[in-house]
Amino acid sequence: MSPHTVPALTVNCTFGYRDVVGTVDTVVYPGEIVAVTGANGAGKSTLVDTVAGELEPLDGTVRVHGPDGDLDPASPEGAGAVIHLSEPSFFPDLTIGEHVSLTAQVTGRADEVDAEVDRWAVTPLLRSLPSRLSSGQRQRSYLGLQLVQRAPVVTLDEPERHLDADWIDYLCGRLRECSEAGAAVVVATHAPQIVTAADGVIAL
Predict the structure, then answer these.
(1) 23, pLDDT greater than 70
(2) What pLDDT sits at residue 177?
(3) Which domain holds residue 186?
(4) Domain co-membership, 46 together with 135
(5) What is the CATH number of the domain that holds 54?
(6) At a CB cut-off of 8 Å and minimum separation 6, what does 105 contact?
(7) PANTHER family, from UniProt (predicted)?
């Protein structure tokens, strides 16, 4: 259980695209990991997209409670309040090493970025273009580049995709490190390891 008394995230909304998929009323505290579970088509990705501000709720609100006050992640003022990881995306003409350099420039933490990508076994891939990597290598590169960034809330949509069991176990530990650094983590997943590692579950 988180020692914090002020939540990092409050979700009280009905979510969906045109039609209602579901309704959630929950809070997530700094230091907590919450897994979103359910069958394919149950709305896991839709809920996580809504929490991240990629999709506005059909009704109700999503609020991130950070140092700048209560923010709607879907609003311009809420930009940067949530780090959202979904399908890996890269600049196709940049090598993985160039992505690492760009991330170091944006975050201002070159040593941390280098250490993070090394932990994900990305260092041997630095001269490669993303299109030349396997799906697992792309996923590890993406996670290494994204998880070094910081925000009050981190959302992930099936981050275990293309990872073997050992790397999923490592991902669980890395998500715990993010939460222990003060983030509230919300992750849509099919992986039993992630569900077991979570502090709470939203079952759809």
Answers:
(1) yes
(2) 97
(3) 1-81+151-204
(4) no
(5) 3.40.50.300
(6) none
(7) SKFA PEPTIDE EXPORT ATP-BINDING PROTEIN SKFE
Q: Check if the beta carbon of residue 169 is closer than 8 Å to that of residue 138.
A: no
Domains of the chain: total: 2
Structure tokens at 192: 């039993």
Hey, is 25 helix, strand or coil? strand
pLDDT level of residue 67 (50, 70, 90 thresholds): confident
| Residues 113, 15 share a domain | no
Structural tokens at position 151: 């925000």
| pTM of the predicted protein model | 0.93
Tens digit of each residue's pLDDT (9 = 90 or more) over 46-58: 999 999 999 999 9
The set of residues, in sequence order, having a beta carbon less than 8 Å from that of 33 and lying 6+ positions away, is 175, 176, 179, 185, 187, 197, 198, 199, 200
Query: What amino acid occupies position 163?
Result: L
Q: What is the pLDDT of residue 113?
A: 97
In angstroms, the Cα distances linking 114 to 47, 92, 111, 201 are 32, 21, 5, 33
